[in-house]
Amino acid sequence: VMEKEKRHIPDNTAFKQQSMPAWSPIISAKSALPVFFIISLAFVPIGVVLLVTSQSVVEHQHDYTDCVSVENPGVPCGLLRMNQSQMTQPCTCILNITLETSMEGNVYMYYGLTNFFQNHRRYVKSRDDDQLIGQHKSSAQVYSCAPYHLAVENGTLRTIAPCGAIANSLFNDTFTLSQGDIEVPFLRTGIAWPTDKSAKFNNPPPTTDLEEAFKIYAKPPNWQKPVTFLDRNNTDNNGYENEAFIVWMRPAAFPHFRKPYGRLNRLGSEYNNGLPSGQYKVTINYNFPVTSFGGRKRIILSTTTWMGGKNNFLGIAYITFGTICFFGGLVLTAVHLHARNTREFYLHKCLFVAQQNCHN
Amino acid sequence: RTIYFNQPLEEQTFLKNEISTGKYNFLTFLPLFLFEQFRKVFNIFFLIICILQQIPGISPTGKYTTIVPLVFILLVAAIKEIVEDYKRHRADDAVNNRKVEVFRDGTFVELAWTQVVVGDIVKVVSGKFFPADLILLSSSEPQAMCYIETANLDGETNLKIRQGIPATSEIQSSEDLLQLHGMIECESPNRHLYSFNGSIKLNEDRLLPLGPDQILLRGAMLRNTKWIFGVVVYTGHESKLMKNANRAPLKMSNVDRTTNMQIWFLMAVLIVISLASAIGSEVWKKETTQRWYLNDTGTGPKGFFMELLTFIILYNNLVPISLLVTLEVVKFIQAIFINSDLDMYFEPTDTPAMARTSNLNEELGQVKYIFSDKTGTLTENIMEFKKCSVAGIKYGEGISERPGCYFYDESFVENLQTKYVQSNYVHEFTTMMSVCHTVVPEKEGNFRYQSSSPDENAIVKAARNLGYVFCVRTPTHVVVRCQGKDESYEVLNVLEFSSTRKRMSVIVRAPDGRIILMCKGADNVIFERLSEKSQFKFETENHLRDYARDGLRTLCFAQTELNEAAYKKWNDTVYYEASTAVVDRDKKLSDAYEAIEKNLFLLGTSAIEDKLQQGVPETIATLSAADIKIWVLTGDKQETAINIAYSSQLVNNDMSLVILNDSTLEKTKQTMEEAICDIRKELTCLEEAPETSKFALIVTGSTLQHALHKELEETFLDLALSCKAVVCCRVSPIQKAMIVELVKKNCNAITLAIGDGANDVSMIQAAHVGVGISGQEGLQAANSSDYSIAQFAFLGKLLLVHGAWNYNRLTKCILFSFYKNICLYLIELWFAFYNGFSGQILFDRWTISFYNVFFTALPPFTLGLFERTCSSKVMLKHPQLYSISQSASKYNAKVFWAMFANATVHSLMLFYIPMYSMKSEIAFSSGKTGGYLFLGNFVYTFTVITVCLKAGLESGTWTILTHIAVWGSFAIWLIFFGIYSHIFSILPLGSEMLGQADNVMASPVFWLGLILVPPMVLFRDLLWKVFRRRFQKSVVERVQELEVEHIDPQKTILDGARQSLSERAHLLRNMFGMGRNEDRDRSSSLRSLQDANHGYAFSQEEGGVVSQSQLIRQYNTSNERGSSY
Fold first, then answer.
1. Main localization of the protein (chain A) (predicted)?
2. Residue A104 has pLDDT above 60, yes or no
3. Is B824 a member of any domain?
């Protein structure tokens, strides 16, 4: 009967009675003080290390947008590329670079574009990842690539491979770095993310015969050669699996960006310690038009450290924030000391009032 | 309608006797639920976003990224609705399955209420509720009388008498019922409780009229009557009670309204930034048309419109999609906390507190006005004879140790048995207690008594316990068994009670042959009629004052011996003429009574306790300290109401009463204006704020009618608000609601109504928050309330602890929900500046849409459920802390915009710091670069951890669940990130994300950012908190600290109060302002506007079907009483 009588009694659990053990931090000057000092103590040295590391990076940037054609002296290649009809006309230009100091270790070559909105929504989505992973797809299936999804080639309407605006606008300038007459060997592999190379970009079957695999497709309209010509020398770096292509296919975050072009081949050459200082010459096959929309093109040579490329910002940010925390800590110390004094005063006063009350 | 009863062949189709207060059933659930959900602008907004996303080419986030979370959220809401509705159905079932005896096929069978149909004859026994509206046929009492308790319907304490028509009164058994056939004609179901018209035709007889005296309404309870037979006329939702029960209106809390407002703000912000972005996009397109690498960029007006839609979709999550469902779930669990609070569990009736709606949890933290019913809410509705004063001596001052007997005083009993001079008075007093009344005894082991007056019942019962057992009532005599010997008093006349006479008398012939007039009534009425020679006036008056101060109900007892001849003369002429008068009989009778009720000798006074519920005075004091105003609205009489106001400490002797009891509009106006004037005068001379006024306003229902008139409304409110306590008596249910509405409309404050009976339903529904007292039999009030508790005293914890906590929790939860969304989604806006306002997202579409439902879903819950500024003990000890939630200082437009600004700054930092960290783009030592999504995942991860830490920073209390929420959310994101980055190998999903996790985590820049960004973003917040605590310490913080240091905060608060006159100090001063003595001294010299400090109160039915004197003449309890078989 007792059981029945009390059948509505609530459960006496810590959760339901809201009596779970809890920690109630009181964020006062005293308790926040150590946090601020610890942060400043840790961050300033980290920042210094980062800044020093970043400073050790050697980086050379050269804008070649307006470089002058070798074939038509006096005509800037950029101007030539403004004109649609002269798009296929070859234009080579030469850029002289002086390395004041040597670039030790791994040296990477980048091309940089400015005012090129690779992150534009319509551009970013204009691709078909299923196609790029090696599936044969009809033009209807790659509709996200429209209008770069089909083209007439050899009299038939064909699906474009690779389709879409990104692929169509593939960066197609080439650089040759040479010291005197000796070409500095640069590898065009090992510049894409390994995950992209292994899982995201696969040639369609039959993978052993690329010509066969891409037979039914059309090349992107802006391309001069089909996708199977991206690297004729290396079957592992051809077709969709071409690393320069893969790198291009990953849209940059900002309209001012750089992408890896190649890395110095240090094995078995005289450049096994990097690039020594001296005069260098870059021969550029100027194909990529940017002048029409006010873009700029750069070529960048850079070494790296454990934290990547030149990056002063992080070091400065660490040092600045660490310093701010230090001053914050100082202010808090002052506040805390002041508070303690008043607290004592306050307690005395409490006692005093209590005594007064007693007497009354 | 026409009802054939006892004719089973007749096909009669009426509504089933089943009530259903549930919202849905199986079939209606889906359409109704969807309708309910999509009535909210919020859900419609997301539905529109879903539809927009289906338009090809404009959605930056794909087609399903809104619909999936929306469906998920609706599912959660649906589950919650189902659980809540299931509970309602269970409660209905409990009522529907109550048992009643129904006459079927010649015998009574016990059936559930649902099976009762119109035309059934049912038998209801004492103490049970009527299952439907019944026509009374006959009862166990003479002449088909029965007592019913209608407290549940109208809140009146006294029992009412109903009487069947004579033609059916002889039906006493099943056999009789078998012979009975007939037909009842009556009006169609309506909601008028006090009117009924119909006629009955018995066995082809002629039609006999039926009126309200024959109807027994559902919701009323049979009392003091063994059984009744009744024909069911209205069932289920057609019963008058149910017709009166409006479906509970959908109440919206203040916080909800503010939140809605803020959602609108956010939508406006959304539109503004979408428009700005779309314009930005146009500007960007105009800049140059030569971007050959882009195909169609969509120019022209159509393009602009499409861009606009794109941006609306892009930014839509500024409005947190999960907010409503988070709130629903949080409130649901908060309601569970309320339901399972052991401090609000009432053991004697096995009743826990119950949140019937969870919409108003936080509203409980903002209550400013409480409107309380009296009977059953403040009081237990039990009258107990507590004390008495006989011949100038007080008895019963100690505490009775005998169980079930509330008055027991050794000296009283001694005096009864011995033969002092004093003992004579005591004997006479006790005799009068057992003789002078209209109670009918009932032999059931010990004697039980039935009466329409609970006061008389208490008196007779007390006399019984003292050994003066009133045992038999015949039409002419009462027999009192006194010390083992029966003494028979012949009742010559009963001079009835009425509220104008304020007294009742009996004239009896004592066993020794003397004729004695015994008169009991209000002190002032009795004192006027005392003989010159009457003693003890002075002492009794003093005692009366003492009793009144304690809030006891007093009745003065006086008697006089009548001279045989004088009595005969009065009885034969004055009384006879009056009682047979055709016109003005009542007036003439009362004149006749007046003529003989004189020259009385005072015996003493009784003090009856209208027993308060446990802890009521303490609770009222606590609530007052929390700056909550308490108004008592009762259907009961003025005297009773005032008594309770005193005994519950709502009104004390320092306070002056302002009594409004005028019968006309003009007079009411005049009185009110005078009162206001007086109060103003007192206040200006005291230089006091109205909060500390020493006035209490007493209003009666009839005056209220005028006071609530459009014209006087404002004056009345002025007056009421400048009084410390307001007591309204004799108010009808609708007036209760009107008062609540008046305050609600004009004061811009949160009101709470608490009551237990059906008469409180309208008030409960009108107030912002309705609280019902549950556990008593009647469930009407509890069922239509928002919260039900078993005891008034639980209101303290409900408001001061749960209310304040819930408010604090919910507002933190809401603000945080807004914050985290603004933080993340404004980043899209900053990114838009770098992507040509194309609407490109920085993050992956699914990580965006799961932000609210997974990665940052938990922290709002911990804030909403476990946040706690002070422990419940402290909250109750310092009711002043309530003012924080009460004043809505933690959640208003200002707070919202401050949060918005903060979130904007945070989002800027969260975007720009990673952006500049990645300036060189070489994120790996291997010289590789990232991409937009690579950066996006940086930013996203930093945002998730920052937002979670911010939740931690906002948490004043870290339970294990807080840790799980803060660190767990981050872990969930990392796990999801890891899995999602590889899912494209298996499913055609997340191609952009392929390999992101591997590369992001391989980048040292990511880890460096992870250490730097969250502390940097939250630095200001932390510093601010420290400074605020130092320089602008809130009361809560001070109490918290002192609690930690084990110093009694009370003193500190008091001390702090004296230091400055800032707003805080003002608050503090209010807390302890009561302690200032100089005010009290002066207030005692205040002139009372009207001295109402009498303890007189008496309840009895007046003007009922059967008058009291008729009633007692009909009983002969010396015979066997009728039984039903």
1. membrane
2. yes
3. no
CA distance A232 to chain B (A): 24
Show the tokens assigned to B615: 């802890």
- pLDDT of B655 reads 79
Q: What is the mean pLDDT of residues B858-865?
A: 91
Question: In this structure, are B127 and B90 located in the same domain?
Answer: no
Are B83 and B124 within one domain? no
Our answer to whether residue B373 is catalytic in this structure is yes
B1076 versus B62: the higher-pLDDT residue is B62
- Listed range (A59-63, B20-24, B113-117) with the worst mean pLDDT: B20-24
Nearest Cα residue in chain A from B833: A254
The answer on B666 and B553 residing in a single domain is no
B586 is in an annotated binding site: no
Asked if residue B950 has pLDDT above 70, the reply is yes
Residue B700: CB atoms within 10 Å: 21
Take residue B638 and report the two structure tokens written for it.
């003025």
pLDDT of residue B690: 45
Residue A24 and residue B342: Cβ atoms within 8 Å?
no
Strands (E), B453-545: 468-473, 477-482, 485-498, 503-509, 515-521
ipTM: 0.93
Single out the residue in B730, B748, B779 at which a domain terminates: B730
B405 and B550 within one domain: yes
Residue given tokens 């811009």 in the structure block: B748
Cβ burial A185-213 (10 Å sphere, 16+ → b, else e): bbebbbbbbebbbebbbbbbeeeeebeeb
Q: For B967-1001, give one letter per residue: b (16+ CB within 10 A) or e.
A: ebbbebbbebbeebbbebeeeeebbbbbbbbebbb
- Confidence label for B158 from pLDDT (cuts 50, 70 and 90): low
Residues B22 and B272: beta-carbon distance below 8 Å: no
Q: In the numeric block, which tokens belong to residue B140?
A: 């166990």
Best A7, A24, A46, A58 member to test B by mutation, with max B CBs in 10 Å, is A24
Report if residue B947 sits inside a domain.
no
User: Does A314 sit within 8 Å of B917, measured CB to CB?
Assistant: yes
Say if B92 falls within a structural domain.
Answer: yes
Tokens for B193, please give them: 């409780």
Q: Which residue of A has its CA nearest to B59?
A: A121
Distance between CA atoms of B287 and B289, rounded to whole angstroms? 7
In a shared domain, residues B8 and B131: yes
Please indicate whether, in this complex, the C-beta atoms of A302 and B295 are within 8 angstroms of each other: no
- CA-to-CA distance for B698 and B728, rounded, in angstroms? 6
What pLDDT, in 10s, does the model give residues B1049-1067? 554 444 443 333 333 333 3
* C-alpha A186, offset from chain centre: 21
* Residue B726 backbone dihedrals phi, psi, to 5 degrees: -130, 130
In sequence order, what are the residues at sequence separation of 6 or more whose Cβ sits closer than 8 angstroms to the Cβ of residue B296? A122, A147
Instruction: Tell me the range of B74-83, B901-910, B1047-1056 where mean pLDDT is highest.
Output: B901-910
Q: Closest partner residue to A251 among B919, B931, B1008, by Cβ?
A: B931
Using pLDDT thresholds of 50, 70 and 90, give the confidence band for residue B244.
low
Contact flag B293-A116 (C-beta cutoff 8 Å): yes
Give pLDDT, residue B937: 94
Which domain, by its residues, includes B162? 2-16+116-244
Task: Determine if residue B302 is labeled as part of a ligand binding site.
Answer: no
Nearest CA in chain A to B938: A253
B497 is in an annotated binding site: yes
Domain count along chain B = 4
**pTM for this entry:** 0.83
Q: Based on the domain organization, do B411 and B555 belong to the same domain?
A: yes
Residue B1114, number of CB atoms within 10 A of its CB:
14
CB-CB under 8 Å, B294 with A32: no
Which residue out of B341, B373, B523, B627 is catalytically annotated?
A: B373
Q: What percent of chain A has pLDDT over 70?
A: 92
Instruction: Inspect the interface and report whether the beta carbons of A17 and B352 lie closer than 8 Å.
Output: no
Nearest residue in A to B1050, CA atom: A350
